[in-house]
Amino acid sequence: xxxxxxxxxxxxxxxxxxxxxxxxxxxxxxxxxxxxxxxxxxxxxxxxxxxxxxxxxxxxxxxxxxxxxxxxxxxxxxxxxxxxxxxxxxxxxxxxxxxxxxxxxxxxxxxxxxxxxxxxxxxxxxxxxxxxxxxxxxxxxxxxxxxxxxxxxxxxxxxxxxxxxxxxxxxxxxxxxxxxxxxxxxxxxxxxxxxxxxxxxxxxxxxxxxxxxxxxxxxxxxxxxxxxxxxxxxxxxxxxxxxxxxxxxxxxxxxxxxxxxxxxxxxxxxxxxxxxxxxxxxxxxxxxxxxxxxxxxxxxxxxxxxxxxxxxxxxxxxxxxxxxxxxxxxxxxxxxxxxxxxxxxxxxxxxxxxxxxxxxxxxxxxxxxxxxxxxxxxxxxxxxxxxxxxxxxxxxxxxxxxxxxxxxxxxxxxxxxxxxxxxxxxxxxxxxxxxxxxxxxxxxxxxxxxxxxxxxxxxxxxxxxxxxxxxxxxxxxxxxxxxx
Length: 484
Ligand SMILES: Cc1ncc(COP(=O)(O)O)c(C=O)c1O
Prior knowledge:
Helices cover 36% and strands 10% of the residues. It has 484 residues and is of the alpha/beta class.
C-alpha cells in the first residue's frame, strides 16, 4: 500500500496538523471566565487540529466503510432490519413534536398526548389487547415490565409463585428479564418441529410456575401452531402467558395475539414499526395487556377524558411504578404512528405478507445447498445450519465473512442456540425480488467456493479495510483507547 492509500486509515488525531482549524467563533459568552477556577483544566485537551474540510472528509470516509440498511441488503436474523421511511423523520422533526418539553403543562401538550394515546390505541388494535404502555425503552425492558406485571398480579391474588418457563429457543433477553424480575427460569425443550412440546410443558407446569414466556413466531421463524392449547394449559394451572412479540413483523394485520390466549406481550417499535435501531436512535418496547392486567401498567398512563381532552393519570395504586422517565421515547411513538397511519390496515397486512413471502422464497431457493434442521414453513425468517459446509471445515461465521465480499451484510450467526452453526436470515419485506435473487446467488456462490477451495473462504473477507479479526480477543480484550 502506498503512503497516500495508507493515510486514509489514520485516525483524526493522527491527521492532526498543528495550527489548522475550522471556524473561529467570537468568544462572546466569555466561556473561559465563567468556569470556576478549581474546575478549569490546567492544560488544553489534545484534540485533533484539522480544518472543517478535513473533518468532513474524515467522517464521510468513515461513513463509507460502514454497512447499514441504507446502503446494503441487511438480512440480520431476529433484528428485522427493514427500511425506516424518511417521512417518519420529517414528522418527528416537526416543531412542537421535536421541541416540546416533557414538563409542558398538559393543557399545552394536547397534540403530543394525543399522539401517545393514538399510538397506544393502534398497537392495542394490532395486537387485540386492551391496554398499552409506551414507557419501556427497548424490547428487553418491555419484557421486564411485562414479567413485573405478572408478578404484581399474582402477588395480588396471594400466590406470587416462583418460576417462569422459557423455551430453549428463546432470545437471551428472555431469561435475563425473568431473572432480573426476581423469578427463576425453568427451560423447556423444543420438539422436532422447533415448537413447544405440549407433553414437556404439561410436566413442567407445577403450581410454583407463574407463567410461560413464549416468542411467537419463535426464533426459528416458526409459528407455534399449538399456541391455543399451550395457553389453555398454562391458564388451567393458574399461570399467565407472556408473549415476546419482537417478531410481530410476521403477524401484524394477520393474527392478533390476544385471540390465541396471550395475557401480556411487548412489541419492538424499532423492529416492526420502522423506528431506528440501536446506535441509530433510542429504542421502544411498548407493553400490551389484557384488561385484568391494566391496573398494573407503569405510571402514568395517557388517557382521554369524557370532554375529549388528553391527560396523564398518576392515580394508579396497583401500578408497578415507573420503568423509565416521563412517557417513553416520545420520538419513537411519533415515527411508529406515522408508519402505521401511512400504511393503514391493508398496507400493514401487505407488509406482513411480503415479509413472510420473502423469507419462504429465500428458504426454498437455498435449501438444496444449506442444511435446514427444522422443516416447518417459515414466518419472518429462515434458519439453516452449517452442517454440510462444516464437513469441509467451514462454519457459519466463515460463510458470513465471505458474504461481505459479495456486498451483503451478514445474516445472524450461531443463533438460536438449539441449531448448531445457525445461519439465521431475515430478509424483511423491504427487499425486492431482484435483491433477494442477488443474495441467493451470492450464498450459492459461497457454497460452491467451499466445495472447491475451503481455505480460500476461511480467510475472507478480502475487500474490507480490516480483514479477518481474532473475534474472541476483540470481544474479550478490546483495545478501545487510542495511545500515541
Ligand atoms: C425475539 C427477541 N426478543 C427480544 C429482543 C430484545 O429487544 P431489544 O434489543 O430491543 O432489547 C429481540 C431483539 O432483537 C428479539 O429478537
